[in-house]
Design a protein that fits this description.
It is built from 10 helices and 16 strands. The chain is an alpha/beta fold and 410 residues long. Helix 10 links the parallel strand 13 and strand 14. Helix 1 packs across helix 5. The chain is elongated and about 75 Å long.
Length: 410
């Protein structure tokens, strides 16, 4: 398959009884794949040893177009109807993907949630009812090609223009060049230095209390007074703990939507905290300890960090009573998050887990170490309330972490 960087990704949902018809459609789509216009995926493309459910969920949650190959067998499949169709509609309604029903064989589908969508072939005439099946799939392919053209013209999100945004530019680790003039700008480069040796330079707790948090709240009041858009495009190289704190200042309950351009599976994508969350969850990889006031929680998405943080846990002067180490169900690394919807799903689950372990270990403060994308930290911060006290840490060097500021979430 031609792996062009701007190819539109397509997920094919079908019943295995219709594999022959799916193959006929694939032959027609192959022309578009060779041209680098699309890249399609279905479950037969999984590698041996892959986690079937996780791989399907990843592909389903990142595809720009979702094809539903309708037939009696599709309707009879719990996986097709209860999982893939349901999630497809959620993403379609959130303008994250375009769902196209393709009627392979006669079946009653108009009463389903997809009943209002335009189906292919023309007039939803089932493929098997056409006298020439090649002509039927050619008709389907032309319809898909038109949708692809529309998506490229609109440059996603699909069927809606991007909301107006207010640009908040924060120079943390370094200054960067950006196009345009921001609505608000903060320069923290005198307080943060990612290249400092032997330890990175970061703002201490007192600086957060006396300078950085007041400045952030001042920006919030400035934007509110100017009646700026509540969709904030957060720009700049920002430390992870700082991104979490920024999120707490611009909470979703106050009407803010946070937006971040984030590297996602090899390309730049815009993540928004208003997305419909995917089904992705964290899994507990390590847990130990006893009830007590201080829990150390590690959220590892960008890479595995257990060996490093377990050393910090053992050697820290802070008397942690317990430790919980979490990774996404799909594993860590660049492939862990395939969309902003994944990031939001994990942020919501992290909040639930903080609350769960607060009750389980009867602790007062969650000490949070983050190995995650900046966008995830923003999303988690914007939802972080009613989970007790939270202290985010910033990594200074291997096994060395510094607390930022204790967040009292209620």
């Amino acid at each position: 398959m031609h792996d062009a960087p701007d190819a539109i990704s397509i997920f094919v949902s079908y019943a295995h009884a219709d594999e022959g018809l799916r193959n006929e459609l694939a032959k027609q789509l192959r022309v578009l794949e060779r041209q680098g216009i699309i890249q399609s995926w279905h479950d037969q493309k999984m590698l041996p040893g892959s986690n079937r459910r996780q791989e399907i969920d990843q592909q389903l949650n990142s595809a720009q177009i979702i094809l539903l190959l309708l037939s009696p067998d599709f309707m009879n499949s719990d996986s097709c109807c209860n999982v893939e169709l349901k999630r497809a509609i959620e993403r379609h309604n959130a303008n994250e993907a375009c769902v196209i029903p393709i009627v392979l064989r006669p079946v009653d589908w108009q009463e389903l949630p997809i009943g209002k969508l335009r189906a292919l072939p023309t007039d939803a005439n089932p493929v098997t009812k056409w006298s020439d099946r090649d002509e039927a799939f050619f008709n389907v392919t032309q319809g898909i090609k038109q949708v692809v053209k529309t998506i490229k013209e609109r440059s996603l999100p699909i069927s809606k223009e991007a909301p107006p945004t207010t640009t908040v530019r924060i120079y943390g680790w370094k200054r960067q060049s950006f196009n345009g003039v921001p609505d608000a700008e903060l320069d923290w480069t005198s307080l943060f230095d990612i290249d400092a040796k032997p330890l990175r330079k970061v703002a201490d707790t007192q600086t957060w209390h006396t300078l950085l948090l007041p400045k952030l709240k001042q920006v919030r009041e400035q934007l509110t007074g100017a009646k700026a858009s509540l969709t904030l495009d957060i720009q700049g190289l920002i430390p992870l703990s700082a991104a979490l704190i920024i999120g707490t200042v611009f909470q979703d309950t106050a009407g803010y939507t946070l937006q971040r351009t984030q590297r996602t599976v090899g390309k730049e994508e815009v993540w928004r905290s208003s997305a419909t969350p995917s089904a992705l969850k964290f899994k507990v990889v390590e847990e130990e300890g006893t009830p007590g006031p201080n829990l150390l929680m590690i959220l590892a998405i960008s890479g595995s960090s257990w060996l490093e943080v377990s050393t910090f846990y053992a050697d820290s002067k802070m008397q942690f009573s317990s430790i919980v180490y979490l990774e996404p169900e799909t594993g860590t690394g660049e492939q862990a998050l395939r969309s902003g919807a994944d990031a939001l799903a994990l942020a919501l689950h992290a909040k639930e887990l903080i609350r769960h372990y607060r009750d389980k270990y009867q602790m007062k403060c969650t000490h949070l170490v983050l190995y995650t994308p900046v966008g995830f930290c923003l999303f988690l911060g914007s939802r972080l309330r009613l989970v007790g006290d939270v202290m985010p840490y910033e990594r200074l060097a291997y096994g060395v972490y510094q607390p930022s500021v204790e967040l009292q979430t209620g």
